[in-house]
Amino acid sequence: MNNRLPPAWSKHLKPGPAPKAKAPIMKPMVNLQTGSAQSRAQADDALLKQAYIHQQAKRRDEAQDLCLRVLARTPNHPLALYILGTVCLGFDDEMALRYFARAVGEEPRNAYYHLSLGEAYVKVSEYSPAIKHMQYALKLQPDLIEALCALGRTYIAFDKPDMALPLYEKALKINRNHPKVRAGLASALSSLGRMDEAAAYLKEAIERRIDIPAAYNDLVQTKKFTEEPEELQSILRELDNPKLNPGGAQKLHYAAGKVLNDLKRYGDAFEHFNKAKQASGYEFDIDLYRRWIDSLIETFTPDLLAARAGHGNPSEVPVFVVGMPRSGTTLTEQICASHPDVHGAGELSKLRRVANAIGLKTSSAGNLKQPVMSITKDLSRTLAEEHLSYLSERAPAALRVVDKMPHNFEMIGLIGLLFPNARIIHCRRDAIDNCVSCFVLNFSEGHSYNTDLKTLGLYYREYDRLMRHWNEVFPGLIFENRYETLVDDQEAQSRRLIDYLGLPWDDACLRFFDRDGSVNTPSRWQVRQPIYKSSVKRWKNYENEIQPLIQSLGDLAEI
């Protein structure tokens, strides 16, 4: 959540403890219909200060209601639009984009508004407009440290970490103790494979007591531990801090779990992973998700797809790597992207934005026929051409561009309508191994199915059910890339992958770990290494702890 406010307004606000959820809203002391413009402005200001406090306390509905009250009598109030954008960011990023864009339209020389609009574009993987607005924010305020860091993060996400380094170095000169600077530098260096340098900056942050939980969580990802590091006891001491908030506890438990797992102290490690999940507070509606999968299967039938033959664009550029997270999607992308004619674009949200725009989303479960029927031949071509332009922006000369957003496994029906000649690589892994590997990582709220072992197993069953459907309605289209097959015989499986892409073999694909470019997933450290087999049947290390997962996987669990 965005917690900034433009200083011209926020300097008047000194928020104390957030009010309780039912605290009375500050009422303006004037008649809103007959009061002077100055009185109305004062009343707006009072309500927006209250909205900000609610926003800080994550009471989104209360904050939104107050902002809408202001807009009802002062249309296009820029600060009300801005706060609404911050409320929506991370929950409805499309709506956040619209609010921030309106705020920028009202105050085009407000650096904070441009910065937040840029951050909203990053949320939806639209990096070029994000960079444009962040650069403009820096033109307006060259030393705006939040903009320097945000632009740095954007360059990292856009596979240009080398361009992020000077931004963070400038930010470090401005404020050596800003919580985002050293973490940002470490992220850029890690993306470039410079793990030792990244670790040095994170250790500096820890020494200066700057965002301790995040620093420890990032630090332990820079290497694999073979003996107990001094940081482990420090992490455990930090967990005893009575002032630690749930978010901090979550990061520290993951950090402790990662170190203990490296040290093969599996029982202790899993205890910390469980506590991290409890601290997250995430919830997942598995029944709603099951209805969503039902709807996709009922809607995307062979008859519907046959009736739409000839829809979309025949381009062979798009490649979609799909599957459960931690199934080998990053490894697969790295192998493919090591080919000189292939560009690895990372995890793109473009396809999901298209789906959401036409109403193909989880909340529409049970009513997907109308959104799909709205995709006419002309619309499918327009959407496909827009998507190709989006891919071309990243690599105009590439013959194939890989989007490795794992959860595009839900979107294969839409892919078939837009790109009948697209390559779809389905990464599949031993079900128990896959789920355990998910469970031990700090995923965002968007992966809330990963919060408890039983739900995770049930979610995996729904994923498996949908993939079986796609293989039936698109026979022979989807290449199944088994993780265990890949690690058992890297060269043979890599050759099959490149052949599926319709490209000649290149030996560079065998040395994917030497490839230049950034890596921006939890697999950062691993994909800098040659293929290793230690992750196969890793779940046996946790066999006693994961019985609820094994039970919910049922016949998919290969014991």
Features:
559 residues, 56% helix, Serine Threonine Protein Phosphatase 5, Tetratricopeptide repeat, mainly alpha, Rossmann fold, globular, single chain
Note down, in words, how this protein is organized.
It is globular, with a radius of gyration of 25 Å. With about 550 residues, it is mainly alpha-helical. The longest helix has 21 residues, at about 455-475. It contains 27 helices and 5 strands. About 45% of the residues are buried. Among the domains are: about 1-140, Serine Threonine Protein Phosphatase 5, Tetratricopeptide repeat, CATH 1.25.40; about 285-430 and about 475-530, Rossmann fold, CATH 3.40.50.300. About 55% of the residues lie in helices and about 5% in strands. Strands 2-3-1-4-5 form a 5-stranded parallel beta sheet, with helices on both faces. It has helices at about 5-10, 35-55, 60-75, 80-90, 95-105, 110-125, 125-140, 145-155, 160-175, 180-190, 195-205, 210-220, 230-240, 245-260, 265-280, 285-300, 300-305, 330-335, 350-360, 370-375, 375-395, 410-420, 430-440, 455-475, 485-490, 490-500, 545-555, and strands spanning about 320-325, 340-345, 400-405, 425-430, 480.
Secondary structure layout:
Layout: H1 7-10, H2 37-56, H3 60-73, H4 78-88, H5 93-106, H6 111-123, H7 127-140, H8 145-157, H9 161-174, H10 179-191, H11 195-207, H12 212-219, H13 230-239, H14 246-262, H15 266-280, H16 286-299, H17 302-307, E1 318-323, H18 329-337, E2 342-344, H19 350-358, H20 369-373, H21 377-394, E3 400-403, H22 412-418, E4 423-428, H23 431-439, H24 453-473, E5 478-482, H25 483-488, H26 490-500, H27 547-553
Parallel strand pairs: 1-3, 1-4, 2-3, 4-5
Helix pairs in contact: 2-3, 2-4, 3-4, 4-5, 5-6, 6-7, 6-8, 7-8, 8-9, 8-10, 9-10, 10-11, 11-12, 12-14, 13-14, 14-15, 16-24, 23-24, 24-27
